[in-house]
Amino acid sequence: MTFGSKTSSSWISLIFLCTALCMLSGVDSWSYFFSNTTMSWQKARTWCQTHYTDMVAIQNQEEIEYLNQWLPKKRTYYWIGIRKLNNAWTWVGTNKALTEEATNWAQGEPNNGKDGQTGGLNEDCVEMYIKRDQQPGKWNDERCGKFKTALCYTAACMNNSCPHGDCVETINSHKCVCNEGFYGEKCEHVIECDKDEVTVPYKGSVHCTHKNANFSFDTSCQYSCEEGYQLSMPGPLTCTASGKWSAQPPTCELVQCPTLSPPSRGSMQCSGPLGQSSFSSTCVFTCDEGYTLTGSSSNALQCEASGSWNDSQPLCSAVQCPDLKELENGVISCGNNTDMRFSNGNTCRFSCAQGYHLVGPSRVTCTSAAEWSERMPRCEAITCKNPVGEAQLITECNQPTTDLRPDSTCSFSCEAGFELQGSKTIQCSEDGEWSTAIPTCKAISCSAPEVPTNTQMNCSPSLSSTISDLTLHPHGMVCTFSCDEGHEMQGASSMKCAQTGQWTSTPPTCTAMRCPLLEAPENGQVNCSNDEQVYNSQCVFTCDEGYSVDGHDLLICDPSGSWTGEAPTCQAPTSQVTVIASSVATAGTMLSGLSAAMWILKRLKRRANKFELNSNSEIEPPPQHYKNSIDSLI
Fold it and tell me: Do domains 191-252 and 524-633 have the same CATH topology?
């Protein structure tokens, strides 16, 4: 598609002139185009957006007059970029409502098909009459599906055409409508204000924010004051489109609080570095005796930077003590003071209901300091203490241990191995005391067993070093016995302390091991250390005169009940006596009879010394018995 053709020479000349002017101006111009075929409104707009910028959106009467003259006569009906949205006629692309200047409806239009020719269908699109005999250049609302000629344009305005304004398309050109505060052909200049008029106040400061150039249109200067000072004018100074500041610079004025007055029945004392009611000043309130400050949390008020006192002004009211809370399970009696408002000197008494006792004072008095003389008492239930006993004591009560009221009872028993000492049952009395003392549990024990002679005893578990009476052995203790060396046990080897406090058996006895009875050898004697031949007994063997011991002359009874050797025998001499006698005869001339006897005794004594008895033994060497006298030997 191309723009519409025109056969007349004037139409060609007009287009040529427009093109030349656009080229000479060096800017993109607003140009109009139309289609050679007809189409629906939506297709017409799509065609315009595809080949050009968009459908023509009428902006003023001048544009309407130009189009009515420029378009060829044979194109009678053209779609233009106006459509009904949300029941309002708007320009396409911008969705802006039509202005009165641009509106050019034909007589009786828009009528939305009420003339009966459209069958009652909605007429939401707009066509323009071109060079009609009747109402040329006027608009008519029409059904969007009808076929009309598309009327398009190419825009002259660019994104940067008017940086601070709106670009308005004009016939074959455009112009800039500047925003407030800007001027120039392209709205490139901004209006400025006098920066010297922005002065800093005493006790204050100023901070300016520049949206455009420094101290130009829309510059905002915000003032602030030091603490205790306030601005004479709220709000910032703003540079207006007229090049003037919105107001004169403000000043910082000292904050003043409302003036206070002394309270009735009291006095007030104010002081401050800048004045009695100015910022940082303080007023202290006091009341006459018998009155107290009310209506404020403090007796001292301070003027704050906001211009208000930090609390409400106090009043002086008669002293009143706090209301007394109800006494649970008790009664409060305050005389005739039934409204329970108490002043200095009022007294209240307390009592408790039956089964409860008073904890705390029985009376309180309201003092001049608006305080009660004592803390509020309480009524506690009369109960007995939890009967806690030793670890082995088992307690069972008919009421919870935290609520043992009068007449409550507790029964006791002991763990295994212990026996109860004291009352088995106790009862809580009306005054909260137990009828008898809490019983104890005594460990069941057996008396210490006697350890027999030649016996060793070992008991388990061993007695603790904390047990004071070591003669008692607790229930469950087991004692085992063993015999000393050379002894054998008679009886049970162990016994246990039973729950009855008695041992399950008696200690055993350990008797010495017994050796076989030794008899004196023929022609000899045996002499033993004990009458009974038991462990450690020693027996010495000797022979009659003229006989000698053949074997061990000393036997000992060992731990197993056996002798250390075989019993010896006495053998008759063969050569020794003969030699002795011969020697005596040969020396008869040399020795007298007495001398010979003494010599024989010494020889016999040396033989007796061969019995080596234990040095620790109490056995004495057995006596020697001889059948013949010395004289017979000689």
Answer: yes
